[in-house]
Every structure is written in structure tokens, then in C-alpha cells.
Amino acid sequence: MIGRIAGVILHRAADHVLIDVRGVGYIVHVSERTAASLPRVGEAAALYTDLLVREDLLQLFGFPTLLEKEWHRLLTSVQGIGAKASLAILGTLGPEGVGRAIALGDWSAVRKAPGIGPKLAQRVVLELKDKAPQVIAMGGSLTVDVGAVIEDDAPAAAPRKTPAVPRSAAASAEALSALTNLGYGPSEAAAAVAEAAATEPDAATAALIRAALKSLAPKD
């Protein structure tokens, strides 16, 4: 299993990138969001990868963070969602947006991805809603730097780090952990945190907890 690719970009396109790794070129399929964030041709890059194996086909799909790769794994577990449909969803919403949409049951947000109809969007939300809290909770630990490491004998290029996941991923994970420790169920806690994060995307952990607790408080 090829889990990570680090090398020099030889070619970029809207949906894939060709990366040279010690003289071997790997075509890695990516979302439009990821493609736009990658360095220029001739510069170093690194992507976490998922290898799709079929009888007549081998394809690599790339992700800038382990968090996004985990969402890809879950999305492709839904019937009707293949690797390219998953990239379309992640490219439209981003990993944090996917987590918020699923936690809130917002299938209309998932439907905005190209090629995703209403029934398929509803199926994604229905099948993954109970799993979303686990991924959101892992967000902090999965938000890791994937700065490219180039071997001495690779083509010369200035190492460049791919963009890290915003700090809000860690804040959401910490807020969710705090709420579950207070006794709230994972699904309701995840929905409250997702709603708070949607309102204040750059909020720190403490602010997310306060906002989520406010939404969870009994209404008169």
C-alpha cells in the first residue's frame, strides 16, 4: 500500500498531479481544492495517498492531510460514492465542511458537489451521521504537517510545505471531547459543535464549547 508520496511536481492539472519520486513519476488524482493549493511545477510537495486497486486499473488519490484521507475512506464506504465522487464532495466542502454537513444532517450542502444528486446526498448523511463524531474527535490528532522530505539524490528543489488544516479542526475536536466528557451523546455533541463552528469558523476551543453548550441547553 502506498500511503504517502513526497517528491517534485512535474505537471499539474485541475484533477491530478504528476510527482517525481527519485526518478519515478506517479500520477495522483486530487480534488480541485487540493490541486489549487499545491506548489508550482518544479517545487517539492507531499500528499497522503489511497491506492485504488481493480483488475485492470491502479489509481492513486491524494490528500493534503490525514483528516481528509479519513473522510475519503468513509465517503467511499457509502454505496454509490466512488473515489471521484468523494473527491468532488471534499473539493466542494473541504474536510471540515463535510464534517459539519454530516453532523448537522445538512444533505443539501453535500448535494452541491458536482454529480451528487439529492438521494445520494441524503444517503451520505444518513449512513455517516453516527460516524462523524469519531472523525471530528480525531481531527486534532490527524491535523499533521505533511511538509515534503526530498532525498539527496532527488532533483533539486526548495522544499515547500503543503497548507496545514486550519486550527479550527483541532478546536472542534477538543470541544467535542469536552462535551462528550460532560455526558452529551456523540451525535448531539457533534451537531452542536458543527453548528457553533459554522457560525464562528475561527473560534477557539473555549468559545466553541460555550456556543455548543448554549445550543444544547433546554429551551423554555
UniProtKB/TrEMBL annotation:
Primary localization: cytoplasm
An example molecular function term from Gene Ontology annotations: four-way junction DNA binding
Pfam families according to UniProt: HHH_5, RuvA_C, RuvA_N
Keywords: ATP-binding, Cytoplasm, DNA damage, DNA recombination, DNA repair, DNA-binding, Helicase, Hydrolase, Nucleotide-binding
GO biological process: DNA recombination; DNA repair
Subcellular location(s) per record: Cytoplasm
Assembly: Homotetramer. Forms an RuvA(8)-RuvB(12)-Holliday junction (HJ) complex. HJ DNA is sandwiched between 2 RuvA tetramers; dsDNA enters through RuvA and exits via RuvB. An RuvB hexamer assembles on each DNA strand where it exits the tetramer. Each RuvB hexamer is contacted by two RuvA subunits (via domain III) on 2 adjacent RuvB subunits; this complex drives branch migration. In the full resolvosome a probable DNA-RuvA(4)-RuvB(12)-RuvC(2) complex forms which resolves the HJ.
Family: Belongs to the RuvA family.
Record comment regarding domains: Has three domains with a flexible linker between the domains II and III and assumes an 'L' shape. Domain III is highly mobile and contacts RuvB.
Name this protein carries in UniProt: Holliday junction branch migration complex subunit RuvA
Organism listed in the record: Paracoccus sphaerophysae
Lineage, highest ranks first: Bacteria, Pseudomonadati, Pseudomonadota, Alphaproteobacteria, Rhodobacterales
Record gene name: ruvA
